[in-house]
Automatic annotation (TrEMBL):
HAMAP family: PanC. It comes from Allochromatium palmeri. Its main location: cytoplasm. This is Pantothenate synthetase. Gene3D superfamilies: HUPs (3.40.50.620), Pantoate-beta-alanine ligase, C-terminal domain (3.30.1300.10). The lineage of its organism: Bacteria, Pseudomonadati, Pseudomonadota, Gammaproteobacteria, Chromatiales. One of its GO terms (molecular function) is ATP binding. Pathway: Cofactor biosynthesis; (R)-pantothenate biosynthesis; (R)-pantothenate from (R)-pantoate and beta-alanine: step 1/1.
Length: 292
């Protein structure tokens, strides 16, 4: 209680780019460093860990809530995506966020989405989640590029939960020479191992009970790799664990941490990435493995 009270801030809210710039520029003129945490709202402890990490990096933390239509496919959950603004604002304030940027779709895409300039990070956007969700990472890269230009932070924080997204963003910032430091924050999990996600709220109680199997499958793959199994066998162990639990795998793959290329037997810095359906809900998770 005491720690949240200590960190509690008066949370300001702005909806327009001009007001956002005015506020951030005043801080910068006073010599303050700015951290930025972009989100789609429905905040949980994972998002709040990004805000806390931001507080350790900067004097001011700006968060955004924007459910970005450009990154949702035609048959995805854009309309159903949970919107819990009052609770989000309370949590941001308790965690020490200074400013909430809450733009409308019109503010972000004033000419409409179809004529919007797009940012494409080739290669890495087309594999894994990008293969299952065509156009998704173009939507992500475009909105993140825009948000970074709107806020102009010194640092921006992203969760390792979306590991591929983090790499797409690192690459876009590097390729476009954007003057911002990108920081990855470890995955926040429920006590049973399930990675926290707004989409967990879609699960029925029965599905929720099965959901930690995704994390268990990553651990099974990890154990197989550490036991010296070939990569294909380790992946098979993970996929079998998903099947046995009744999850429908989209992919489970061992990749190089650096660029998400398929891992070879010589590679030591690995990440196991998986996506699986539980009923109609698509869950993702990953686990890094450093082999000796
Ligand atoms: P979202 O609102 O899902 O777009 O997520 C906003 C940011 O929070 C992204 O950088 C995510 O990677 C991050 N995030 C979401 N879930 C978690 C989690 N369980 N642990 C750490 N970061 C997370």
């Amino acid at each position: 209680m005491l720690s949240t009270a200590q960190h509690s801030t008066h949370l300001m809210q702005v909806e327009h780019i001009a007001e956002l710039r005015e506020r951030v520029q005043a801080w910068r003129a006073a010599g303050e460093r700015i951290a930025f945490v972009p989100t789609m709202g429905n905040l949980h402890a994972g998002h709040l860990s990004l805000v806390r990490a931001g507080r350790t990096q900067a004097d001011r933390v700006v968060a955004s809530i924007f459910v970005n239509p450009l990154q949702f496919g035609a048959n995805e959950d854009l309309d159903a995506y949970p919107r819990t603004l009052d609770a989000d604002r309370r949590q941001l304030s308790e965690t020490g966020c200074d400013l909430l940027f809450l733009p409308s779709v019109r503010e972000v895409y004033p000419r409409g989405q179809d004529t919007q300039t797009r940012v494409e990070v080739p290669g890495i956007s087309d594999i894994l989640c990008g293969a299952s969700r065509p156009g998704h990472f173009v939507g992500v890269a475009t909105v993140v590029c825009k948000l970074l230009n709107m806020v102009q932070p010194d640092v921006a924080l992203f969760g390792e939960k979306d590991f591929q997204q983090l790499l797409v963003i690192r690459r876009l910032v590097e390729d476009l020479a954007m003057p911002v430091e990108i920081i990855g924050v470890p995955i926040a999990r429920e006590s049973d191992g399930l990675a926290m996600s707004s989409r967990n709220g879609y699960l029925t109680p029965e599905e929720r009970a099965l959901a930690p199997a995704l994390y268990q499958a990553l651990k099974a793959t990890d154990e197989a790799l550490r036991a010296g199994e070939p990569i294909a066998r380790a992946e098979r162990a993970g996929l079998d664990a998903l099947d046995a639990a009744g999850l429908r795998p989209d992919y489970l793959s061992v990749r190089r941490t650096e660029d998400l290329d398929p891992a070879g037997s010589e590679d030591r810095a690995l990440v196991i990435l998986a996506a699986a359906y539980l009923g109609r809900t698509r869950l993702i998770d990953n686990r890094r493995v450093a082999l000796e």
